[in-house]
Amino acid sequence: MAGESLQVALLTYRGTPTCGGQGIYIRHLSRELVALGHGVEVFSGQPYPVLDPGVELTKLPSLDLYREPDPFRLPRPKEFTSRIDALEFALMCTGAFPEPLTASLRTARVLHPSTWTEQRRYDIVHDNQGLGHGLEKLRQALVPLKVPVVATIHHPITVDRRHDLAAAGNPWRRFTKRRWYSFLPMQQEVAQQLDGVLTVSDLSLVDIPREMGISPERVHMVPLGVDPDVFFPCPQAAVAGRIIVVTSADVPLKGLMVLLDALAKLRVEQPHAHLVCVGRAKPNGPADRRLDELGLRDAVTFRSGLSQEEVVALMQSAEVAAVPSFYEGFCLPAVEEMACGLPLVATRVGALPEIVGSDGTAGLLVPPGDAAALAMALGELLDQPELRGRMGAAGRRRVQERFTWRAAAAGTAEWYRERIAALRGGGQAPDPTIPQVAAPC
Q1: 137-144 contact pairs (CB < 8 A, 24+)
Q2: Who's near 110: CB < 8 A, 6+ residues apart?
Q3: What is the pLDDT of residues 288-335, one digit of tens each?
């Protein structure tokens, strides 16, 4: 098995890079697996991923109920073509988030072994934190073929739920949040049945077994990465006083409100300091209202729907990057910012000390939720160009040594081989060409 080319089915319930880290993970992991000589077919719901040449895409059309500019839309009757469509709409109407479940059910149909041929077969099925019931159905169908079904869990979403519930202002808001996160018991149940779980940080290696009831020996860690040739420094592009943050603006877990408070404090002594936020703030949402409360309307810019090239250009235009989160299972934007030569001011939580380092070489760590400490650290870096340059160079070296997509793909492929060998018990899998098993109804 060692050194052999593998055929990988890579699953994601939504895939565009602008939807968050999962789209970035799918694009770069698939590209680097192909570069290592493996075959990869991505199965994705909408919005579809951006993939590189050599990676196949099988689209799993859905009702796309959260698409812009009309999220929570009412589909036309002719759009309903299956019971899965009806389930997707019903779950949305009752306040649940249906995509992890419904995408997995569509995948189970399309990937059922009765559809396989000599030219279309797989050595492993790898889900990207969808963990829907359809994945378990698919795993059961693949047991006779000894094809493992595994998943990446970037971090346990139970942590997000706790922070969102804590930030909910009233009982109705807490009820709607609980309903939105109603997919979590399903994900916990499915994850416990899989042939292996991959995660991306030492922190998640500890948190996932505790939060999701998975045996620790079944969880393996491979860090994420960046392409240092794409994310690179450009000192001449920096704008004086610019701070950048990449965040989900209205998600309490991400700590943007604390950063806005810190910026208001910082501008008392450094009025040129300003913030570019790569993310979208809801009109009249918490972050949007906070700008007026703090008098920051002219000091904060929100940018969303950007291409990778535009994100890189914005990172290169900053002098400092901020990561004010209350929890991070990894934090890919932090690694990208370090690759661009930016010193970081990050909170001392989650996996951030793993990424930045705790010795103050590549960035400064501050307590979560402490706007005064965040403002002081940002001001220190904005005041000292030599310190910024030294930390930025150290951060880029750290990325090149520890966090690249090629290393992530190589580590993932080696783990694939271990999972395949464990399931086959050292033997060979039976021929998967058109297995004689019934297709699901």
Answers
A1: 137/105, 137/108, 137/440, 138/104, 138/107, 138/108, 138/111, 138/112, 139/193, 139/194, 139/195, 141/108, 141/112, 141/113, 141/437, 141/440, 142/113, 144/430, 144/435, 144/437
A2: 43, 58, 60
A3: 999 999 999 999 999 988 888 999 999 999 999 999 999 998 899 999
Count the residues in the chain. Answer: 441
3 state DSSP class of 56: strand
pLDDT at 441: 32
- pTM for the whole thing? 0.83
Q: Which CATH number fits domain 7-225+404-424: 3.40.630.30, 3.40.50.2000, 3.40.50.150, 3.30.70.20?
A: 3.40.50.2000
- Which residue in 189, 190, 209 sits closest to 199, CA to CA? 209
CA distance 21 to 27: 10
> Is there a contact between 183 and 97 (Cβ–Cβ < 8 Å)?
yes
User: What integer pLDDT is reported at residue 439 of this predicted model?
Assistant: 38
Top CATH class, 235-402: alpha beta
What pLDDT sits at residue 430? 44
